[in-house]
Amino acid sequence: MMPADPRAVDGAIARRLRDAGFSGVSVVLPDPLAPTREELVRVRQVLADAGVRVAQTNPRYEALVNPDEARRREGVRVLRHACRCARWLESGNVYVRPGSLNPRGHWLPYPGNTSPETIDRLVRSLREVVTAAEEEGVFLAVEGHVTSPLDTPERIRDVIEAVGSPALRFNVDPVNFVGTFAEAYATTGFLNRMFDVLGQYTVCAHIKDVKVEDRLVVHIAECIPGEGLLDMETFLRRFDEAAPDGYALIEHLRDEDQILRAKRAVDAATARAGLTWMG
Fold first, then answer.
1. In-domain check, residue 279
2. 50-62 confidence digits (pLDDT tens)
3. 19 CB contacts (<8 Å, ≥6 apart)?
4. What are the pLDDT digits (tens) for 79-138?
5. Burial (CB count <10 Å: 0-12, 13-18, 19+), residue 260
6. Residue 279 above 90 pLDDT?
7. Which residues of the chain form beta strands (DSSP E)?
8. I want to staple 40 with a disulfide (CB 3.0 to 4.6 A). Which of 26, 63, 88, 271 is the partner?
9. Is residue 251 part of a domain?
10. Which domain holds residue 42?
């Protein structure tokens, strides 16, 4: 429901988002170095005029764990600039993907993704980026995944504490951590473990669902919220406890009908959890 380039946002797009019941949106920056301050301030204002806030700035950049030092440093440079973009957008947080050693993509598995050398490289990169977040007054919201260097809640906590800055926080996306049938079929316990470990660092959430497919050998896939196995009520209650003013963003759905179907399912789960959305 957002254009690929946020500079194309206009009043009609903003009103359609608000009419669909959304009070916040993620702004993807395909090239964080391209937009000017004036362009991003205009985007923020057009959305705000319709009652929609920029909930998260989502930049594209080189992997922070890239063993090629020049490319790693370029990722750091671009992500530091994205912190400035987030201030212009008044989003409050910048989405951070830890990256992968896999040259084909940030979220793809690869040998050595969780090696001590890779984790040390990630900590070094985050320390170099977080000073920009501190200067701009925004949070870095780091996310993990079973395929990534940040494969467990405990490893994320350890990295956050190793970086040692209050500006480094957590973007909670529980589906990313479901890597076994035991976790897929018993998400309540997993959700409680995740929030027990990372609740104090949580600032934003991504919402999707998870299903087990009848294919060999192991196929655990994302699906539309409300159509899978995730205990959505526990997820929403624990998120509300951790970040009562935080935004929860439906992601990875391109079709508007699917987005609205997901929104209805999340709203229903919210009501079952005894919660209401602000705004």
1. no
2. 999 999 999 999 9
3. none
4. 999 999 999 999 999 999 999 999 999 999 999 999 999 999 999 999 999 999 999 999
5. middle
6. no
7. 24-29, 53-59, 93-96, 139-142, 168-172, 202-207, 209-212, 220-223, 248-250
8. 88
9. yes
10. 6-272
Tokens of 220: 């655990």
Mean pLDDT of 157-179: 98
Percent of the chain with pLDDT over 70: 100
Token representation of residue 96: 């951070």
Q: 28 pairs with which residues across the strands?
A: 58
The token pair at 254 is 């391109």
Residue where the block lists tokens 């391109």: 254
- What pTM, to 2 d.p., does this model score? 0.96
Is residue 278 in a domain? Answer: no
Please report whether residue 1 resides in a domain: no
Give the CATH number of the domain where residue 268 resides: 3.20.20.150
* Confidence band of 186 (pLDDT split at 50, 70, 90): very high
Domain tally, the chain: 1
Between β-strands 209-212 and 139-142, what pairing exists: parallel, antiparallel or unpaired? unpaired
Which residue carries 């003013």 as its tokens? 245
What average pLDDT does this structure show over 256-273?
A: 97
CB 10 within 8 A of CB 31: no
Is 5 buried (19+), middle (13-18) or exposed (0-12) by CB count in 10 A? middle
CA-angle at 60, arms to 162 and 163, nearest 5°: 5
Phi, psi of 243 (to 5 degrees): -140, 75
Written as one string, the DSSP assignment of 104-139 is: T-TTS--TTTTSHHHHHHHHHHHHHHHHHHHHHT-E
